[in-house]
Each structure stands twice: as structure tokens, then as C-alpha cells.
Amino acid sequence: MSKGMVTALTAYLIWGLGPLYWKQLDDVAAFDVITFRIAATFTVLLLVHLVMRSGHRTVAVAGDHRAMSLAVLTGLLLGVNWLVYVWAVYNQRILEASLGYFINPLVNVVLGVMVLGERLRPVQWVAVGMATVGVGVLTVDVGTLPWVSLVLAGTFGVYGLIRKTSPAGPLDGLTLEMAVLLPLALVAIAVRAGGGHGAIGVTVPTRDILMLGAGVFTAVPLLLFVSAARQIDLSVIGILQYIAPTLQFLLGVFLYDESWSGGQIVGYVIIWAGLVVFAVDGVAAGRRTVTSIAVERRSAAYQVEGVVVDDLSG
Fold first, then answer.
1. Domain map of the chain by residue range?
2. DSSP string for 71-103
3. How far apart are the first and last CA of the chain?
4. Tell me: the pLDDT tens digits for 216-271?
5. DSSP 53
6. For residue range 99-124, what is the model confidence (pLDDT) as tens digits?
7. CA 129/CA 131 separation, integer angstroms
8. Which residues contact 125 (CB under 8 A, 6 or more apart)?
């Protein structure tokens, strides 16, 4: 197994086992967890920049008005995504959270079509249609839209879309996003502490360590993912990304005993079937692309060889 594959698997395993971490903090308000998560993540990123001596690069990017404007938007989207996810874990809605990340790739596809003018293959349209039907079944069964799933998929989908067009790189972009959110987080922490509702130093030290460790737990998989994306094919990344929501789903069902009805089973199965169709089509398309490139290269080599032979014979 290649180094890039191991790196990617590690990132997705950390994300997939995330509920185990956040459940240890379920006696702390989700809002407090997120504020400390922002502050701790920013601190970790500063340490990374110190080690890599790359702070000057982030400062230079911060001088780009467009990059900073986009960082404000992506930072807010990330904050909402984190808050809803932690709230879902606290409130026995891990299955809904996992569904959000299951359908996120399809949301990315739809955004690519609607915003970037990308074109879908017929099989991809079938997968998107199946996912839509599945969400509809879940909505009818529950009686309301699965808003947790839709908010998580929507915020992260739009986040990815904006980051795709941002001039800031992965590390610099995340640092700017945390810098945007940091003042809000620090004010919130100060206000909560001043009102006697501080989340640090009020109970056992273990919980304080977990609160402060949220930055490492957040930054490490993100940085591992960025590293892996540069080492292995995007099609492989596309398949591996389903590891995280699958682990979250299994934790919700078998460890935290979250209940789900027959209607939910039908809805999930339809969505998963759509994801399988989408994933298989993506792998097949990737293979066709590789084959096409190889054929073109061989053709070009033959043409060059023919020209050389003609020159020599002339």
C-alpha cells in the first residue's frame, strides 16, 4: 500500500471515528465546543506555519482582497457545518449526520453543473436522481426534511465550491478561515466565562484536555487529506471518502443504538444505491481516461517514429 493511500485512510478513519471524540464532550454546550475548536485549530495551524516557516505566504495571501473575501464566506460555512455536526452527535442524530456526508459528493456534482457549467454523464444523472428520491422517502417517513443531512451536505458542498475558486492554498486558506472566526470565538469564550459558564477549568482536567485537543483533532486529518490528495489519484480519493460516513453510520447504529424505521431503511438504501452507481461510474470514467491517454501517447510515439524513419530514408 502506497504512502499516499495510508495517509488518506488515516484521515478518513479520524473523521469517521469523530463521534467517539465529540461524545466525550456532550456535557459541554455545542457552541462552546465550536468556539474552543476554532481557537485550538488556529493555534495548531500557527505551530505548523512556524515549523514550515510558511507564515509569510499566508500573510501575502491575506493581502489579496478576493482571497480574504472568500475566506470570510468559507470560514462562516465551516463554522456552521461544525456546529450542526457536533449538535447532531450530542442529540443522537449521528445517522442524519452521516447521511449528509454520504450525499455531499452528489451535491458537489450538482453545484458543478449549476454553477461551473460542468456536464454530467447519463449514469451520473441517474445517481443524482436516486439520491433525490431517497431524500424524498426520508422526508415522507420522518415528516420533515432531514435538515441536519441537508445542512451538512449543503454547507460543505458550497465550501468546497468556493475553495475551488479561491487563490489561497489548502493550508493558507484554512489558516485565513480560522483567523476570520477567531475574534468571534474569543469574544464568545470571554462572554461565557464572564457569565460563569466557562467551559475550561470548571470540571475534570480530562475534559479540558479534550477541549484543547480539538484543534489537533481538527487540523491533523485536514492536513493529512491535503497531503494524500497530492499523492494519489482523485478517483481513489473519491471512493475512500465514503469510509468516514460509513464509520459514523455504524457507530450510530451499533454503539449509540440510534433507532431507524422501515421507511428510513428504504430511503438510505436508495441513496446508497445511487452512491454505488456514482462511484462505479467514476472509476470506469477514470479508467477510460487513463486508457485514452495511453492510446494517444502510443499514437504520438508512432507518429514521431514515422517522421524519424522518413527523414532517415530521405
1. 3-313
2. HHHHHHHHHHHHHHHHHHHHTT-HHHHHHHHHH
3. 51
4. 898 888 888 877 766 776 556 766 778 888 899 889 988 998 877 778 788 888 88
5. T
6. 888 888 778 778 888 887 877 788 88
7. 5
8. none
